[in-house]
Design goal:
Elements lengths: L12 H23 L3 H11 L8 E5 L5 H6 L6 E6 L2 H13 L6 E5 L12 E7 L8 H11 E12 L7 H21 L4 H11 L4 H10 L2 E8 L4 E7 L1
Helix pairs in contact: 1-4, 1-6, 6-7
Length: about 240
Amino acid sequence: MEVVPYKDNSTGKKEQVAVMFDNISGKYDFLNHFLSFGIDILWRKKAIKMLNKNRPEYILDVATGTGDFAIEALKLNPEKIIGIDISKGMLEVGRNKINKLNLQDRIELRYGDSENLPFEDNKFDAVIVAFGVRNFENLDSGLKEIYRVMTQGGKAVILEFSVPEVFPLKQLFNFYFNTVLPQIGRFISKDNAAYSYLPESVKEFPNGEDFVYLLKNVGFKKVSCNRLTFGISAIYTGQK
């Protein structure tokens, strides 16, 4: 079943996701950190550390949003990071952030479709994605594109929400994620759908071994799944 933000809208998931992120772009960073109690910052740091040994020079940040993952990736000291996203609102917030930090020479944010990447084959030493693959309209197409633009031997690092499986964390998480979080998100963002879509999309996402299988099926090797914070999120890695 395809999960979309606006169920009474006839447009496709891709278009709806772009509109949703445009609507919440001004509050996105605050809500991300507030609703996760700041743990999302630690998750990004841990994910980027998984590329320390690879020392990538050219990095692509897919579904970059406001650029937080790209900024964190600067710790790898790459030559260039390009972020791509379908939400112009999120990109505007990200560019303002990057300009304030005077990082525009090292990070470039572009408008574009993650499932039809505007780059040649074998271009990036690493591709990173934080909380983005869940929003792909066609997950298989998006993963194939990530694989295509990576250099031989390059590494993908994908950070995504997961679902805890251990009692009572599973029950506590479900209550917070399905009841408390949507109400707070709705109140602050003023978008009635965005933070209801979040738990629905996480529930439908093929997390854990199911996602590992999809990565292997696309062609990734040495695929791993590292669960974080009792299974609330996971870092997936794979090599071309």
